[in-house]
Structure formats: C-alpha cells, structure tokens
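Quick one, tokens below. Sequence please?
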C-alpha cells in the first residue's frame, strides 16, 4: 500500500516521506518515514498498514486516495480507473441510452 520514496500525509496533515519499507523490527514496524515538521524532519516507524501505535494516532500514515470515474444508468453504476476508460464505455455502450448519466470524477479512500 505504501511505496518507497513516495510522500503521504499523516492523519494530522503533515507530509511523510517513506524512506524504508523493509526495516528489520521484532514488533513489525517495517516502514520508516521522515515526517516534515516546520523546516526539519523526524523519523517515525510504522507497521505496513501505516499505523504507529495500536490506537489511532495523529502521526498515522493515511492511505493514498484512489481516483475513480463513475458512469451510471438504469442498470447500475460502473466504476473505472481512468477518465479515458469511462468515456470509452460511455461512447461505445451507452451512446443510445437516453437514461444514461456521465458523472464527473469521484474520490474514494483506497
């Protein structure tokens, strides 16, 4: 879920840059990130799910948001990973469907 070298947000909105994903740790804290606080960084160890304590914590890493594109008609709602896929389906399958609605992009938690 979290990738080496990418920057994520903490629960409190700080930038956290993942610098290690395979840290050897007896308690399972394999991720190491540098959290930006003002003009300096401090390190935080995380479990692979982005948590740093058993309880919710302001320094927890938030999973990236996934962009999805939604099309819907009377038969259902269809999600696509890109705008191009959604538009292609709109043009090929639903072009003659008067009850079709093309919905702008939405974001969901990954």
């Amino acid at each position: 879920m979290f990738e080496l070298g990418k920057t994520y947000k903490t629960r409190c909105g700080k930038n956290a840059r993942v610098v290690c994903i395979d840290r050897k740790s007896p308690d399972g804290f394999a991720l190491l990130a540098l959290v930006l606080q003002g003009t300096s960084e401090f390190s935080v160890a995380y479990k692979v799910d982005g948590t740093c304590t058993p309880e919710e914590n302001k320094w927890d890493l938030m999973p990236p948001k996934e962009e999805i594109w939604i099309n819907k008609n009377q038969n259902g709602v269809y999600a696509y990973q890109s705008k191009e896929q959604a538009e292609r389906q709109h043009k090929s399958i639903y072009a003659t469907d008067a009850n079709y609605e093309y919905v702008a992009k939405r974001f969901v938690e990954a």
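The CA atoms of residues 73 and 99 lie 6 Å apart. Residues 65-109 form one domain.
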